[in-house]
Amino acid sequence: MAQSGYTPISLYHTSTPGAQPAAGDLVSGELALNTADGKLFYKNALTNAVTNLAGLSGYSGYSGYSGGTGTNGTSGYSGYSGYSGTNGSGANIVNDVATATNEYPLFSSVITGSPVSFYTSSPNYLYKPSTGELQAPEVIANNGLLLNSSAVASNYTVATGNNALSVGPVTVNSGISVTVTSGQRWVIL
Fold first, then answer.
1. First vs last Cα of the chain: how many Å apart?
2. Which in 10, 85, 155, 175 has the greatest CB count within 10 A?
3. pLDDT digits (tens, 9 = 90+) for 92-111
4. Rounded to whole angstroms, how far apart are CA atoms 48 and 11?
5. pLDDT on residue 177
6. Strands (E), the chain
7. What does the pLDDT read at residue 54?
């Protein structure tokens, strides 16, 4: 209810159950509310997609998490990997090993249970749960050591545009192969 003498702020909104704004309906950072479903949407500046920020039906993480009413961003949280939940007031930490797209890692206030706060990373720090790949523009080992295993235990291809470095001796386990794409290098020091 607006106080006398003040103008209320109104979001882009609808009262049609199940309705979600299209990307063309919102500018980056604008919020939209579905008053019938209790869902809050925003337009993601990186993907230009409309994302369900919160809702009464619950959270569902990026590409592969579900909770509440949908998966892969169709309903619930279409935002951050690493959690799913059952309501808009909290989230549960889960272990994702299936998502095959790069995600923004989340940092939470706890390592198990229901975190109180989430802190997001940036496009400079990405993680792909299905492969375990971590991307960063540089790695700083504060203790002065970068470690690698002394055995290659699974097949690996050094793809075009990449090179590999290992400190040896390094053994390639029986039945395992390392493929180095033409024009690339694998150097063992």
1. 70
2. 85
3. 666 777 778 877 777 776 66
4. 19
5. 96
6. 12-14, 31-34, 39-43, 50-54, 66-67, 70-71, 83-87, 90-93, 106-108, 118-120, 126-128, 133-135, 151-152, 156-158, 164-166, 171-172, 178-180, 186-188
7. 67
pLDDT at 75: 35
Could you say which residues of the chain have pLDDT below 50?
A: 56-87, 89
Three-state DSSP class for 107?
strand
The residues near 40 (Cβ < 8 Å, ≥ 6 apart) are 31, 32, 33, 34, 52, 53, 54, 55
Structure tokens belonging to residue 42: 């925003």
d(CA 121, CA 106): 6
What CA–CA distances, in Å, run from 127 to 24, 118, 133, 135, 181? 29, 16, 6, 6, 23
Q: What is the 3-state secondary structure (H, E, C) of 134-186?
A: EECCCCCCCCCCCCCCCEECCCEEECCCCCEEECCCCEECCCCCEEECCCCCE
pLDDT at 113: 67
- Which two tokens mark 102? 């790069």
Say whether pTM exceeds 0.85: no
DSSP 63: T
